[in-house]
Amino acid sequence: MLDRIKLSGYKSIYEMDLSLGPLNVIIGANGAGKSNLINFFKLFNHMMSKNLQQYIGASGSANDILYYGAKRTPQMTATLHFSTSSGNNVYHMRLMSAAGDTLIFADEAISFTRDNTVEKPLVSLGAGHRESKLLEEDLVCSPKTAQVIKTIMQNWRVYHFHDTSSTANVKKKAYINDNHYLRDDAGNLAAFLYQMQKMEPSYYRRIITTIQSVAPFFGDFVLSPDGLNPNNILLNWRDQGADMNTVFGPHQLSDGTIRFMALITLLLQPRLPQIIIIDEPELGLHPYALSILVGLFKSISRKTQIIVSTQSTTLIDYLDPDNIIVVNRENDQSCFRRLSEQELSAWIEEYSLSELWEKNVLGGRPSR
């Protein structure tokens, strides 16, 4: 599990020291910095596929990544603490502004400490490189620790199921063998479900049953290779009460329904990512669908870590205070604070969490 993140100099985050639990739900006003923490995990998604420079370019430039620009903040640092069954791992990086408006590693270091022993010092992997040294096969320094940390971070997944327009990837034909993991926009949902239907039918049936609990009109997916091109597959489906020969396409699903299908598939798949990060999963969902969703968050957080960003007052009413991290914009920076049930004990006897959020008792509301 990722236990702690220390981060400075990244976008609106001047300095942050945040402890994480199995389930972490981030709330805050627009512009407070929720999305910047989500984007920090996207940085690692790119970094662990040797695409850090691509991420920097797609973000605009190093100047757009560093807190108020490179002139004010010439570098960003991040230190991540992981707990595993055998001990504790630490990954540290310091990225500095470089010529060409990019970032290079001023330092990259790791360490491993067995449980109940004094924390070992960091071992440097070097400096001056443009992509992470963790990805090098012939790494000399602490290769076993590097392999563990790399494997963990390569198994983080950031999901953003917002695009359900007519041109969204989830509504297009997908390559049938693109089924190793669910893509961040669910663009390969049909291929992913088809593989699960064939290889993991019990998981597939649970997904169907859960979707039907929120969308009772839904009968089943109709998943088969395209007749003209067997390498392609489309997210077709059948209505519960219609003629069994009538097949509908993904463009005949509501935005909320198709997002819910993607979310349920993500959460009920047989091989969960190490960490699941979801940006605003509540979009277009009925309150009952949100109750099902949060129930799954709580259930699978026993096996995999969940980080969610939300604006939904309905969603947080299904949570415990200890699950919630509040983000406020204070003194031109994003400040993250985890709630505790103890500090809210007097309030939650009479008010729901959503009421406390609306009354600004929790923070996370627009302020001047």
Structure characterization notes:
The protein is of the alpha/beta class. It is built from 10 helices and 16 strands. The strands form 4 sheets. Strands 2-1-4-5-6-7 form a 6-stranded antiparallel β-sheet. The chain has a 6-stranded mixed β-sheet with strand order 8-13-14-3-15-16. Helix 5 crosses helix 6.
CATH top level of the domain at 1-155 and 320-368 is Alpha Beta
- The total count of helices amounts to 10
The CATH homologous superfamily of the domain at 1-155 and 320-368 is named P-loop containing nucleotide triphosphate hydrolases
Overall SS class:
alpha/beta
Fraction of helical residues: 25-40%
Cross-sheet strand order for the largest sheet: 2-1-4-5-6-7
Beta strands, count: 16
Question: Could you tell me the strand content as a percent range?
Answer: 25-35%
Backbone CA Rg: 22 Å
Terminal CA distance reads 37 Å
Poorly predicted tracts of residues: none
Mean pLDDT: 92
Order of helices and strands: EEEHHHEEEEHEEHHEEEHEHEHEEH
CATH topology of the domain at 1-155 and 320-368: Rossmann fold
Largest sheet: 6 strands, antiparallel
Q: Overall 3D geometry? A: globular
CATH architecture of the domain at 1-155 and 320-368: 3-Layer(aba) Sandwich
